[in-house]
Structures are given as structure tokens and as C-alpha cells.
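Hi V.,

You were right to ask for the full record rather than a summary. Here it is.
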Amino acid sequence: MKTLVVAGVTVRELLRRKVQVNLLLFGLVLLVASSAVSQLTLGHMHRILSDLGLTAMALIGTLLAVFLGASLVAGDVDRRVVYPILAKPLSRSSYVLGRYAGLAAALILNLAVMSAFLAALLALDAGSLAPVNRTLAAATAAMGVQLLVVGAVAVLFSCVTTPTLASIFALSVTIAGHLTNDMRAFWRGADWVATALWYLVPNLGALSLNHAVIYGLTVSDATWVAGLYGLLYAAGVLALATLAFERRDMK
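Predicted structure:
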């Protein structure tokens, strides 16, 4: 119950932040711009609109997950507002879990708004609801899992360092996560350190279904396995975050 209270407060706090509102508006503008670009291209309008729209959603969602998540715990420590909170009968793990739950709710809400806007643009372009199908829903769901992973990584770094460093580290891990397939090919046959790093970095590329939406492909069962992997990865990172914050010296 206390975790839910913290989550509710976090959602209200994040929704009031200007950076969150600005990035969401910027994402909606990108979606409109992608629609305009597709109108200037002869043929393949659906493909261009889908590609640009999903890319804009992923970009804005990732930036929100990184910068909001990196400032959640570390920002409270810097402003010293965490001390009266932890002085109450509230465990540190409940506090971290509540902050992450609020962040996750805010990210999913923003993703839902942008996906609904993209679906409307695709439907208007096609003149029917045909593009609003299971593939688009699966791509949105996979992107949601992707944002949950990025948010968990940002919260982990937020529990152990400053907001600025947490943002840099989380953004670096996120970029590496989108390049894991290239890293695997490049590091094939490399030493154990490179192999360990490859396994530690989240495979965010597996959670991208842009190509399926663009070319109208059927979502395979491997996608659901990737989604389960993403949720388990986020849970593991969140467990490390709570452990790190439990052992952090707040003096």
C-alpha cells in the first residue's frame, strides 16, 4: 500500500514537470511532421509514416525514461527531500519500487497517447482502420517493455550517483542496447570481458517491431519471448537498484 502511495505521488509529480510535457508535445509534432513528409513522397506513404512515427515514439519515450528516471532518486537526495520521507515508516525498497512504479505508469501513459495519435494518422492516410491491427498493437507493447527496461536502468544509476551521471550512464547503456546485434557480430571470438559485457547489456533491438509494422509482417512467437526477457531484465535491474539504495550511506 505504501508503495502505491509513493507511485501515485510520483505520477502526479512527473506529469507536472515541464520536460515531460515538452517532450510529449515534441513527440506529437514529430508524428505530424512524419505525416507531412509521407504526403510529399510518391507511394509507400504507409511505410514512411509508420517508420518515422514509431521512431519518434521510441526516441521521445527513451528520453523521458532516461532523464525522468535518472532524477527520481538522485534528485530527491540532492534536494534532501528523501530524508523526511525515509524517516517515516517506509522502507527504502518500498520507496524505490514506488518511484519506479510511478515512472512506469507515466511512461506507459505517454506511450499510449503517442500511439493513439499515430494510429489515427495511419487510419486517416489509409482511409480505413486496416493499419490499426495486431501488429501495431504488438509493436507498441514491445516498445512499452523497452521503455520499462530503460527506466529501470535509469533508476538503478539514480540510486547510486548524481542525476547528471545517472543520465549519462543510462543513455550510454540504452545506446549500447540498441547496438547489441552489431556488438555481437563485432565481438565474435573476443575475450570473455567483451562477451560478459554483451550479455550484461539489454538487447533492446529485439524489442523493436518497426519492420513488422512497416512491411505488414506477422509477429512471431520470438517477439513474446523477447518481451518476457525484457520484463525479467527490468525486474533484475530493479532488484539491484533496491539493494544498492538499501546499502547506500545517506549521511
